[in-house]
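Field notebook, page 335. I keep forgetting to write these up properly, so this time I am using the form the group agreed on. The chain and the ligand, 2-acetamido-2-deoxy-beta-D-glucopyranose, are recorded exactly as supplied. Prediction of the bound pose follows.
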Amino acid sequence: MAGIRSALIATNITLSLVFFYLCTLPSSRAWDGNQFRKADEKEIEHYTEAEEGSWSEAYYFIFSTDPQPGLIDMIEGGDGSRWDTELENTRNAMTAINNMKPPPKFLFVGGDIVNAFPGESLRKRQEADIREAFSYLNSSIPIFVISGNHDLGNVPTPDTMESYQKEFGDDYYAFWVGGVMYIALNSQCMFNSTYTEGLCTMQDVWLQKELDRAGNSSCQHVVILMHIPPFIDSLEESNTYFSIPVSRRLALLRQFSHAGVEKVFSGHYHRNSGSVWTEQKQDGSSVEIEVVVSSALGAQLGGDQSGIRVVKVLKNAISHSYYTISDIPESVTLP
Ligand SMILES: *[C@@H]1O[C@H](CO)[C@@H](O)[C@H](O)[C@H]1NC(C)=O
Ligand SMILES: *[C@@H]1O[C@H](CO)[C@@H](O)[C@H](O)[C@H]1NC(C)=O
Ligand SMILES: *[C@@H]1O[C@H](CO)[C@@H](O)[C@H](O)[C@H]1NC(C)=O
């Protein structure tokens, strides 16, 4: 009798657990969970100049950066082993983006996909969990990624670069969407290439080649995407943890401006910042590049709130606005 009773109780508990589990399963997730597009041979299938090289109409994309599961816990004094808030932020943002009309052409993740540095034990779980959270996005919207300092290490090594490439694809590449050329860079190479001199020189050579291509092409706009921004506030600022070193900064911006780059989108700072750099040419003319520093989808280090940036790509201009997750608009007006 007692045996049957405990068996019944055990069955009951099992059933309740199963029921509880079913009830807590995310209901809005209908996708296969692997829509991070991996760049190969420095390009992304279907997003090449041949397939996407000509302008047809205005559109927008989403720039999101630093989802970085684990950092909020560390800021609050923990060891970085909890990241439920980051996952919730990411899922909520993806769900809100799914409701946007018209849908964005793509979502770009500007690095620090995870918080744990290469080799740290929490990394695998963070990566699996954040991929799962991004998988809430409607799978018809592609996700492109670049590496941040947490993904590669502050001073990358050939090993950390190789494991990043295995997981996420090439660490630098170019892609085209609707007549616009996007150049995605591994900014860690420009921060400190002590252990990766050869690999980073290859990026420099490739970058110049791509910029030459951009400068000579008929693309509507050229946009740079890199985790560490060229600067936070202005060209003149001194070296900080948060920007490309002074020794590289001006030459890099000049390279960009020669090719007609209009915007640079970055993260890393966990605050919104940036400004327009004006280059005075010798002939008296001037060109402008806007450096946009976008706050994080995850942890904040300043007065902003977790959010994403909506980037409108119009025929003659690119404009952008940052939205806190709960304020992501349901409709986007494109002229
Ligand atoms: C995903 O987006 C496509 C294209 O906008 C749309 O047709 C489809 O209904 C969306 N899927 C879901 C489940 O909302
Ligand atoms: C780059 O990293 C190396 C190795 O950690 C270090 O010795 C060097 O000081 C760093 N360079 C700069 C400019 O921070
Ligand atoms: C066009 O390409 C050549 C190299 O083939 C390069 O020297 C030149 O700077 C490029 N023009 C622009 C505007 O980028």
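OBSERVATIONS:
- The first helix runs from residue 2 to 24.
- Residues 212, 215-216, 258-259 surround 2-acetamido-2-deoxy-beta-D-glucopyranose (ligand 3) (CB under 6 Å).
FOLLOW-UP: compare against the apo run.
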